[in-house]
Amino acid sequence: MDDYRIIHPILPRKDYGKIENVTKAEGVYVYSGDKELLDGIGGLWNVILGHGNKEIEQAIAEQLAEVGFINPWTCCTDIVYKLADKLIHFADGDFAKTMFTCTGSEAVELAIKLARRHQAAKEKHEKKYIAVFETSYHGTHYGSMTATGVDREYYGPYGPMLQGFAYLPIPFESKQTTQAAIQSLEKFFTKYGEKLGGFLLEPILGVSGVVKLPDAYVKRLKELCEQYDVLLIFDEISTGFYRTGSKFAYQEMNMKPDILCLSKGINNGVLPLGAVLIGNEVAQMIKDHDFINHFSTQNANPLCCAAGVKTIEILERENYGEIVNRKGAYFKQKIEALEKEVSFIKEVRIHGLMIGIELEMENDFSKVLEFVTDLKEEGLLAYPYNNKYSTGIMLLPPYIVTLDQIDSMVTILKNTIVKQIQYS
Ligand SMILES: Cc1ncc(COP(=O)(O)O)c(C=O)c1O
User: A GO molecular function for this record (predicted)?
Assistant: First the structure.
């Protein structure tokens, strides 16, 4: 299928290899013709309950039979109210309001607007800046793309980007002491604090290589945000809904974001949906000023919301915190054993079922792309990453992955590494 008429997002054609034509997806497997592939990245980190979940399919069908679409400008429908309410309860009632979007990028877009609007409402017109980490990923709309630190070298031809972003180094515990990272955070606030309206962060940075913000760093960050009146915006688009073993990573960190961006696992990834949960202070500002200038025709689409309600019902019904932590611990044990066997693995970072495997790849993205292609040939879908700190692969399997399937994934990884070592 060389002459297909779609343009690949993100990667130049020469880099992405053969596109698989998926003909069936079921549980933890996707099929391309007669080839069976273990989906080690659950779609694109979003198919948290596995492909083809029948309960979710039925919920969508029932909603379609009732109300398939509403004009979100002048109408609402029960399922939309229900999901808004469910999300707030699922987040343990820490938030006051929900706004729906179609994607994660759009959720980040909205969060940036909310932060700026909030500061403007407080007459703090100088506080327009948004702080972000230099290897963060937040999406590809203009706001979220500007907020994304990791791909900035490719932005030239698309410029000018959105103004008012300040980038700071990530506190990567294995590369730098947390104390040094806190000092650079303090310097950053001395320089930008008065101008900052919001601090946008991934609590566990995904494409940076699965890097968790250290506790002491987060504690100091919280103090500085309070001191400088900066809103804390958590992007939990990839970490939310038990991916890291907790409902949301912010809960593990003893934090209370003012704004929370969600998408991906929100509805098991079957239909496009994002959401922004809004804390009391920002919600009060919206109430006082009556509206937020953000809208898209498909926001809060009832079918997408029905899939979301059913996904959360399933997450609430079963003990996914325990399930994800137990399977993550098993994965960790297996990969750490492999790490001892082969010198090719530099470091393994695992939080729940969010797995980062740093490889000896000399910061060369083309090598990782080749490695991921080899994994695919062996039957495993993995995600390549590369940034100035770290190069390697990520695995984010569906939570229904079995221990046997984990064994198979690690065996494929081992075989591919052994081949790689033999041929290099
Ligand atoms: C942390 C994070 N933020 C934002 C996004 C963008 O979400 P979407 O691809 O749905 O626009 C992603 C997607 O990978 C993500 O991982």
Answer: transaminase activity
